[in-house]
Amino acid sequence: MEKSNHIFLVEDDLSFGAVLKSYLEIHEYEVTWVDDGKYAIDRFKAGNYQICILDVMLPNVDGFTIGSQIRLLNKDIPMVFLTAKALKEDILKGYNVGADDYITKPFDTEVLLCKIQAIIKRQPTHSENEQIIFTIGSYEFDSKIRSIIRNGEKQKLSPKEADLLKLLCQNKNELLSRETALRKIWGEDGYFTARSMDVFITKLRKYLKDDPNIEIKNIHGSGFLLEVKE
Question: pTM above 0.85?
């Protein structure tokens, strides 16, 4: 089978890194492994990757810093953080950086493999008859190229930002339940994914703030409502 998914792995534990790299390669993934944070960005720039797996505790440059730098280079690439600490603050920090998932050591490699497969499978696809262009007040949202335009100014969105805005548009002026959004975009409706979604809602509000006729309302305990006054 031809390897079609290239993983960027940053892990300083040499024994664990070698085992994880071999395990992923056995399952038909190509893996570029970096064991020191200070080399990570240069190696990332030199490759073409489909997903990043970043250890948080690294020598010289930590995983959150690397993740933030990667986001500046590529807004779209999925990221999974690995950590030996299960602190809520660290997990939320990872999601604020733009994590797609977070896994605490020690973990079963099969669990990580399933998470990788699920993330790749969830990458946006568009059916032939699916609506792609949406009008949101004075904005035009293109869900395929993930951009919103107003007065000639374009704002690029990340995949999850675009997926969430698309769901809101499909339910414009109607309630979008938290459970529906979480399951469709994140594949689960756990506490930390819910907090992650709140971060993305805040970002969408910022992108749409210049039109006073648009409001993304938080319906307490239920979900969100994209209200557009005509």
Answer: no
What pLDDT, on a 0 to 100 scale, did the predictor assign at position 2?
38
Phi, psi of 48 (to 5 degrees): -130, 105
Computed from CA positions of residues 181, 218, 208, 77, in that sequence, does the dihedral angle turn out positive or negative? negative
Longest dimension (CA), the chain: 60
Q: How far apart are CA 151 and CA 190, in angstroms?
A: 38
Q: Provide the b/e sequence for 147-180 (b: ≥16 CB within 10 Å).
A: ebebeeeeeebbbbbbbbbbbbbebeeeebebee
Residue ranges of domains in the chain, CATH in brackets: 5-121 (3.40.50.2300), 133-228 (1.10.10.10)
7, 31 contact by CB (below 8 A)? yes
pLDDT in tens, 151-176: 999 999 988 899 899 999 988 888 99
29 bridge partner residues:
5
Q: Is the pLDDT of residue 43 over 70?
A: yes
Residue position matching structure tokens 């335009």: 149
CB neighbour list of residue 230: distance below 8 Å, 6 or more residues apart: 213
- Cβ atoms of 229 and 213 closer than 8 Å: yes
- Which residues have C-beta within 8 Å of that of residue 194, sequence separation ≥ 6? 178, 182
Look at residues 159, 62, 35, 52 and name the one whose alpha carbon lies nearest to residue 102. Answer: 52
